[in-house]
Amino acid sequence: MPTENGLLLVVSGPAGSGKGTVLAELLADPAFAYSVSATTRAPRPGEADGVNYYFLDRAAFEARIANDDMLEYTEYCGNYYGTPRAEAEAVLASGRNLILEIEVEGAANVKRRYPGAVSVMLLPPSFAVQEARLRGRGTETEEKIRARLARTREEVAKVEDYDYVVYNRDGCAHAAAEDIRAIVRAERARLARNADVATRYFANEE
Ligand code: 5GP
Fold this sequence. Notes:
This protein has a domain of 133 residues: 3-Layer(aba) Sandwich (Rossmann fold). The chain is 42% helix and 20% strand. It has 8 helices and 9 strands. It has a 5-stranded parallel β-sheet with strand order 2-7-1-8-9, with helices on both faces. A hairpin with a 2-residue loop joins β5 and β6. It is globular and about 65 Å long. Bound molecules: guanosine-5'-monophosphate. Guanosine-5'-monophosphate (5GP) binds next to β5 and β6.
C-alpha cells in the first residue's frame, strides 16, 4: 500500500502566471481537491460564497482564528485570507491531494505547521512575458498592473523558500500541469512518506 494520506500541495504564483488554467486541469482529476479559502474581502462580480471563497466579516474571521479553525491565515492588502482547517484535514485523510492556492506568507506558515507539505512556485517564463500578459488582458488599470508587478518582485524574492519552481510558457499550461503531477508522483513515492515498507510488504496486503 502506498502513502495513505493525500499530499498537501501549496501553489503560489503571481498575476499572469496562469494559475487558474493550470489548476483547473489538475482539478479535473478526482485525485486532486481544491481548498476554498475564507476571506474578509468583498466578493467580486461573479464570485459565489462557498465556491470562490467563504466570505466572512472581520469579527467572524477573528473568531475562527481564536478557535484554531484556520490551518493558516494571513493579512494581505488589508484583508484576512485563510484556509479552513477541518475541511482541509478531511480531504487529506481521504487520500486526495489538496491544493492550497495561497500567497508566499501563507505558504511559509503552512510549511512551518506541516513539514510534509510541498510547495510549488508557478511562474511565467520571465518578468517581461508576465508584463505582456497583464497588459494583453486589457482588464486592469495601469495603476493595478503596476501594483501587481511590484508585488511580483517581493514574491519572487522569496522563491528560495519553495520546494519547486514550474514555468508556465505561453500555450503550455498542459505541460505545467504535467510538471506538477510529476512532482506529486515523486513526492508520494518518497520513502519518508511510506513508513513500514518492509512490514507492509510481507503482510500479504492486497
Ligand atoms: P484575491 O483577492 O486576488 O482573490 O487573492 C489575493 C491573494 O491571496 C492571492 O495571492 C491568493 O493566492 C491569496 N490567497 C487566497 N486564499 C488564501 C488563503 O487561504 N491563505 C493565504 N495565505 N493566501 C490566500
